[in-house]
């Protein structure tokens, strides 16, 4: 005799019951005495006949498993809001279908090949879900002045599914299902691998040189802008677009840059990985549904085909990686690197071009604000402490890496932070530690295969491990991320030679000298190929991202600092007691004390003495910091080695600055002479 427990049965609402039988196949009682599979009819019992029922919860309102599953998800269209009619009688109300069509047309235009007549056909939704296949589709027809040689190609017949502005949860599912190396860590972050490249590839950056950019941009020695021609850009663009369209699906993010509403830039990122989409979701400003509805045409588009290499037979290509910027077309193409930082910093380069045109200074700096509204900027090259020191529990975080300084004050360009994770500890950096939770992207970290606990000390994949999280994950983030004019401008250098003082007060000319020099010891890994700290000079603390000559940015900074009475500081977050190898990195708690003393104004009025060679003003005392470390010579046991190293570094500064001696800053040459005199003297 069969015995069936109630919970294995489910009513389908018309007197039939499906249930799992002993051998795993479903038997159905069909109401005529015999089950379809030939077994005797099973009588179901009515209430009150002695059978035990568990009626404590009402039955599920579904007749099939599929229906049950469909109940689980509520219809929501955060990316396709229905336009309201608040606009009054004359408001144009687009139907949802019409709106989706327009949106798809815009995406289709982004993805269009510029050499073929038709395509691509784009459709919204996940190809894995059959119910989401072609309802609304769009493709662009091009009728160029030339006669296309191919009127129909297979690629024009195929659908490209578009996963548009997915939520972090949806992107997690996509990553875990389709991207090897995606895992959920014990704190809920998405662990991911960026592939062979674990840092940016500045030598593979190309910028289109045309009639306009030839005059406008900084080219030649020391410049990060390596030229390519328009045609080669189109070759790479076509390569990227064809690659993306060959996929079953692409991710599209429509987002913003810059919290200053007057200078907001609309960006579209087309990519092939959920990792890239979630990274940009975190790093760019996330639009509200209303803002997205009125998004329209993007101001700038990234085609990230990083999985696919560039073709080395193509002119200007010197490796399989190419990051190409075309300012006239307002487009960027990425081939041959999946390192997500290329997108972040590619857009930053664009801002370094667009903002100065509007008399706005773009800055590779962190930024925070005290309770009294005092704003500090933290300039510095990669790994010098912008994120670590701007994330300060006692202050409001405006942003950790990219800002604008306008007539009205400062604004963050981004919507998220990108922290270095190597040796991250809860004690030293609690706010960053706590931000690494659900929604955060953890790149190239190593974790315990069972507990999924991250080992932040592990460099097996790279030293440049990173976390990208939305800025609101930092509890005292200031949203919107804008603030008044800066009071302090802190230049961070991580001095691997161990001869720069932990803190120096700078006059304006010195500030400009060190800003233009942009010295640090590059910390391993952020730029591909660098494995040990090496002395580096990078103009404006970000030569890899600036588009105009460094003196243009320097002149603007000098103007603004003078106008708003900001004080400049040089803070060495690097070595003390000897060079890299023999000395040690200055303890983070000491650096924090120094920064506190800058913020609260106490350091401005401290007692100072002038150093040899660099002529830096150094305080004799800082609260909470051992006084002997304030002058580096005290921390070296070998004084001769110290002096030699000091002169060596000074020589490097001098040699580096030779490139800038013939440039003028400001209307007269006066500041230039002062700046030249503000360097090391020996
Ligand atoms: N004294 C110190 N001051 C600042 N940071 C320190 C100090 N000692 C060690 N560190 C470590 O140095 C790293 C600074 O990295 P951070 O993420 O702040 O760099 P960043 O300037 O933001 O660079 P990027 O532009 O690449 O994001 C952190 O890992 C931090 O823990
Ligand atoms: O771009 C990156 O990879 C990280 C970063 O912020 C920098 O290098 O300045
Ligand atoms: Ca950072
Ligand atoms: Mn940076």
Topology readout:
Elements: E1 9-11, E2 17-20, E3 26-28, H1 65-72, H2 96-111, E4 118-124, E5 137-141, H3 154-157, E6 159-164, H4 168-178, E7 183-184, E8 190-192, E9 205-208, H5 211-216, E10 227-228, H6 230-246, E11 249-257, E12 265-271, H7 274-283, H8 289-293, E13 300-305, E14 322-326, E15 331-335, H9 341-357, E16 361-363, E17 365-369, E18 375-380, H10 386-390, E19 396-399, E20 403-406, E21 409-412, E22 416-420, H11 430-435, E23 441-443, E24 446-447, E25 454-455, E26 466-470, E27 482-483, E28 486-493, E29 503-506, H12 508-517, E30 519-522, E31 534-537, H13 550-564, E32 567-572, E33 575-576, E34 584-585, H14 588-599, E35 608-610, E36 617-619, H15 639-657, H16 670-677
Parallel strand pairs: 4-6, 6-11, 8-23, 9-10, 9-14, 12-13, 13-15, 18-28, 28-32
Antiparallel strand pairs: 1-2, 2-3, 4-5, 7-8, 11-12, 14-15, 16-20, 17-18, 17-19, 20-21, 21-27, 22-26, 23-26, 24-25, 29-32, 30-31, 33-34, 35-36
Helix pairs in contact: 4-7, 12-13, 12-16
This protein binds adenosine-5'-triphosphate, oxaloacetate ion, calcium ion and manganese (II) ion.
Calcium ion binds at residues 386-387, 400-401, 418-419.
What keyword list fits this structure?
single chain, 682 residues, alpha/beta, ten-stranded mixed β-sheet, six-stranded mixed β-sheet, binds adenosine-5'-triphosphate, binds oxaloacetate ion, binds calcium ion, binds manganese (II) ion, ATP-binding, EC 4.1.1.49
